[in-house]
Design a protein that fits this description.
- The chain is α+β, with helices and mostly antiparallel strands.
- The chain has two helices and three strands; from the N terminus they run H-E-H-E-E.
- A hairpin with a 6-residue loop joins strand 2 and strand 3.
- The chain is elongated and about 45 Å long.
Length: about 80
């Protein structure tokens, strides 16, 4: 069994330029334990994005999972 699946991070990185042409904001969330966070941080920094840690709480158990939200705003002209 493979520990890391680089496909999503690689696909997202290659799609970001096109997504940022089409949308004003591109954002996604990942578990803090996700090994792809290193790559996500690299291209979030490259595009001048923000990294926002938060805790997602389970309503039934009250337990929380540490999460990270990545937000990249388009530099295109406003419509």
């Amino acid at each position: 069994m493979r520990k890391n699946n680089p496909t999503l991070a690689g696909d997202l990185e290659s799609l970001l330029p096109e997504l940022l042409k089409k949308y004003k904001v591109v954002k996604w969330d990942a578990s803090k334990e996700n090994p792809a966070n290193k790559r996500y941080k690299e291209f979030t920094d490259k595009y001048g994005g923000e990294i926002k840690p938060y805790t997602e709480k389970d309503e039934d158990t009250g337990l929380g999972e540490e999460m990270i939200q990545y937000v990249i705003e388009s530099k295109r002209d406003s419509d």
